[in-house]
Amino acid sequence: MTPPDPTADTPLDREFYNRPADVVAEALLGCYLFRLSADGVTTGWIVETEAYLPDNDPASHAARGSTRSNQSMFGRPGSCYVYPIHARYCANVVTDNIGIGSAVLLRAVEPCQGRKLMQQRRGDVAELDWCRGPARLCQSFAIDRNQDGVDMTDHSGEFWIAAGDTPGKIARSYRIGVTSAQTLRLRYFVDGNQFVSGRRKDHSLKPIGRFADAR
User: Quick count: other Cβ atoms within 10 Å of Cβ 135?
Assistant: First the structure.
């Protein structure tokens, strides 16, 4: 499979993100995540997301209203909301209209380009665990609070998402690690992809990597 090209792949536009979080969460599967840093380029194929809604979703950071720490979540659709967790970070893409407070958590990607750089950042762990989980993903892509509020629709920026390939079968389940709103099925993932986090029994297809044959 041909890897994505950071010099040519156009970022998804604001209209793409100006939709409900659950719609965007599913639509992001199969898209490519790009990160340009002083160290180099890292890209990944998005295989797992979670939606966080503006209403009736106590697990969402928006449930407590706009604060200094979460104000980016209420910003323009297509901007980035990054929050700290256990000395690491999680990255979200803001959805819907300004002031609504909804977002999609990027839970996992399959590594494409910059694998040596990801390995350096993650240390002595297996490739399967470089980007499997939101905090691991952020560490592999060098994402922290400096990227909070970044406009991901801007190709001249350092962090964006471009259209990708048809992901195949998409599965849906309850979100992972939430202590409230546990009955909402707002986690979306590429069924059978081995870089998806969570329980293997959630999959109906045999585990395989999208780019396994290209390595």
Answer: 17
Band (pLDDT 50/70/90 cuts) for residue 213 is: very low
Structure tokens at 100: 């609504």
Distance (Å, rounded) from C-alpha 71 to C-alpha 74? Answer: 5
Rounded CA separation 131/113 (Å): 12
Phi, psi (rounded to 5 degrees) for 188? -120, 140
3 state SS of 106: strand
List of residues 6+ apart from 181 with CB closer than 8 A: 56, 57, 58, 59, 60, 175
123-161 confidence digits (pLDDT tens): 999 999 999 999 999 999 999 999 999 999 987 778 999
| DSSP assignment letter at 206 | -
For residue 185, the cross-strand partners are none
Q: Which CATH class is domain 14-202?
A: alpha beta
3-state secondary structure of 59: coil
Q: What is the pLDDT of residue 120?
A: 97
φ/ψ (deg, to 5) at 152: -85, 0
pTM for this entry: 0.93
d(C-alpha 98, C-alpha 73), whole Å: 9
The 8-class DSSP code of residue 208 comes to B
d(CA 154, CA 101): 21
Q: For residue 214, is pLDDT > 60? A: no
